[in-house]
């Protein structure tokens, strides 16, 4: 996670990034200048994220993590981010041991937790849940995934990873592969990429294509988006291959899932058809869509991508709560 020396030298003087008191519910709430400022701020948190620098700028502040759906990376990286900034953490990762089990509504839970904390990070199976929580909370709310809706902080770390790799996001071709219908990370990512001069290529099973409204929104904003079934031709053009898991938990009919499970599998043989400096990203968790042999290849970036969640989420918490890099 240490910045390459030449990137350090090119880094512009820090822009003010103040998101104090604001929610992070949708990537649509971010203009390009906001995204760029977050990426720049996240870069400045790398030394504290890796333990090379001590930072207690959020001492005495409390983060609440309310996770109604499973998570490894998002919850733990938010909790680690808060602790690396000297703050405390409360929350749950299993709603069945909370008063949700007794029928308490999300709105009531948020009203109470809001009185106990300074910021709420929420993951919930229902689209729109983070927006609802933000209406009931006086403190800022972060959407850590709302059903098949959005996952905006994942997008910030995805963009951080691309920028770290190529020095810039503009000018690159991003191939998005897999479950583009239910994959909330993709919905947020393509919406954000529409701010940049990139080409997006979408490859998915026919019944798991990007929702029409998301595709139209990107194209209406002038983004170049190609939809194709020819994975190998798309791979030959790509600088970034962004793979996603088929989201089994979003299928109402298990038979429909079985029909598409295992449709794509990234292997070293397939990657030979791509560019030499192609990078493979994945929000994780993966199931079988990337063969483990790829982990040791020079293309794999998904573990570094996950690690980048820490400085990015430190930047998010700090900018919301007045912390310093
Ligand atoms: N990428 C992501 O959201 O991972 P988790 O589900 O483990 O949080």
In short:
The chain contains 14 helices and 9 strands.
Overall 3D form:
globular
Please report the total strand number as a whole number.
9
Q: Tell me about the largest β-sheet.
A: 5 strands, parallel
Instruction: Indicate the radius of gyration in whole angstroms.
Output: 19 Å
What percent of residues adopt helix (DSSP H or I)?
25-40%
Structural class, from helix and strand content? alpha/beta
- Which spans have pLDDT < 50 for at least 5 consecutive residues? 1-14
- How would you spell out the order of helices and strands? HHHEHEHEHEHEHEHEHEHHEHH
Sheet with most strands: strand arrangement: 7-6-5-8-9
What does this structure look like?
Mean pLDDT is 94; it is low at 1-14. With 325 residues, the protein is α/β, with parallel strands linked by helices. It starts with a helix and ends with a helix. The strands form two sheets. The chain has a five-stranded parallel beta sheet with strand order 7-6-5-8-9, sandwiched between helices. The chain has a four-stranded parallel beta sheet with strand order 2-1-3-4, sandwiched between helices. Helix 2 packs across helix 7. Helix content is 38%, strand content 14%. The structure holds phosphoric acid mono(formamide)ester.
